[in-house]
Amino acid sequence: MAFVNEISMALSAEARRAAMEAVLKSRALSRNPRLTALLRYLCERCFRGQTTSIKEYDIATDVFARPADFDQTTDAIVRVEMHRLRKKLKEFYSSEGADQPIEIVIHNGNYIPEFVPREITDSKPDREEQLTRTEPILPSPVKTQIRISRRFIWAISAVVMMALAVVVLAMVARRHATTAPAAHLSPKPLVDAVAALPPEAGYRMLCGSTKGGYRDRQGHEWGPDAFFSGGTAVELPSQPIYRSRDASLFRSLRSGEFSYKIPLRPGTYELRLYFADTSYSPGTAMEGGENVRVFNVLINGLPALRDFDIIADAGPSTGYVRVFKDIHPATDGYLHLGFSKLSELPLINAIEITPGIPGHLRPTRIVTQDNVLTDRNGLTWYPDNFFLGGRMLARFGDIAGADDPRIYERERYGRFSYAIPVASGRYAVSLHFAETYWGPDGQGGGGTGSRIFDVYCNGVALLRNFDMLQEAGSHRQLTRTFHNLQPNAQGNLLLSFVPVKNYATISAIEVIDETP
Question: 351 with 474, same domain?
Fold first, then answer.
């Protein structure tokens, strides 16, 4: 085992990363985003030399979005998914990956991936096989070990020679650069790119704040402003923020013409930019503020938001999140964000960067409750958010035959909407209902036709004259899923619930990225 570990660590970073990418792109894993995220997380930790910190708790909270109070004695999500991952790895290397030169091995009882040349993998029995065999296991012939060792030494020598050549070329280039005239020198970064790498949970920064330490309703901790250049920090008075249950994310801002230079390891990330313009109050007493504050946002030098007007897109004093997927650091190892004025000064309240899935946004699951909920399938549902209007109320009675009755313990009812921020793409939206008030078994009595309402997405009807009693009966779960939905111009899936007779209602909303 020690011999295999030494070889695993000595292989070049390019070779180990190529082995990871081969598995991630395979048929065995490419259609399974959970296992894809798990393998990438384990390998990236290994690449960074952080193997000692690969623990079950970290995997649960970072990969599977478990809350901070995750208890591994009652929640086996990590062990279950690791078992599935080991099985998929074996399937891959026995079929489409049979010709791969390096195999990724994760032994039972361990979360650390090993990168093993296939010759060694073939000559050494699996740990489980060793434990079950009754005959003594003889050591490999000395000649085989010597032949493998020489190949390995030659490979390492070649890598070392290439590295020396790169260093020499870099020194020559630097010498020439020092004699060239200076032009548009970049400002010195606030932190070293290697020393300030983000944790796997990502960066969460309260722009304009020097305090940080805020834990949001999802259990994520937000730090102070960092990595900025230019602009002014502004602390704001406490006031209501519409469409957000975390108003503290909008208690400070950075204003002016400014930029961020955020160090990131190579990889795929999701980026969320948080905005709320509180300069104008809603109502008839004054104009709304449209076309007053307009600015551009650049990501790595490319336009991400053009002629961006917070008031026009979201309204005054409204929490507004713009989401971007497939974000990568630039060639210098930094993510560059630029904010440039068109009229009035740009602003931003918070920045969130989290590990992403190539080509897809992580699922959004919202339950109309105040706490994080982990269902029986191990999926995490976050507290009610992004809504405007309606009231939250505890339900009456149990839901018969529900996949997880806890999802239906509360509801939002009335006339209301949800503006769920997503990146560009195509999404499946599942709406979870249960009728517990109207009907023979409910407090309101009556029968079919007692509650009727419409549901729209970005103004297009999903459900018309929807009657839960007629569809499913009383105290039973009812799920309707709609595919191929796209965000509106404001980057939202705007779900509107409009009463026809009595109030509309919803228990939970699930958004899955189905972009081809």
Answer: no
Token pair 């549902």 is at which residue? Answer: 381
pTM above 0.85, yes or no: no
Q: Could you tell me the residue range of the domain that residue 12 belongs to?
A: 2-138
Element holding 479 (H helix, E strand): strand 477-485
Number of structural domains in the chain: 3
370 and 348 share one domain:
no
> Which residues are bridge partners to 479 per DSSP?
432
Listed in sequence order, the residues at least 6 apart from 273 whose beta carbon sits closer than 8 Å to its beta carbon are: 297, 321, 322, 324, 337, 348, 350, 351
Contact 231, 256 (CB under 8 A): yes
- The predicted structure's pLDDT at residue 434: 95
What does the pLDDT look like over 29-73, one tens digit per residue?
Answer: 877 888 888 999 898 888 877 777 688 888 888 888 888 777 777
First to last CA, the chain: 42
Q: Are strands 452-457 and 492-501 parallel, antiparallel or unpaired?
A: antiparallel
- Out of 355, 389, 405, a domain closes at 355
Task: Please tell me whether residues 349 and 374 are part of one structural domain.
Answer: no
Helix (H, G, I), strand (E, B) or coil at 3: helix
**At which residue do the structure tokens 């983000």 appear?**
198
Strand 373-374 with 380-381, pairing: antiparallel
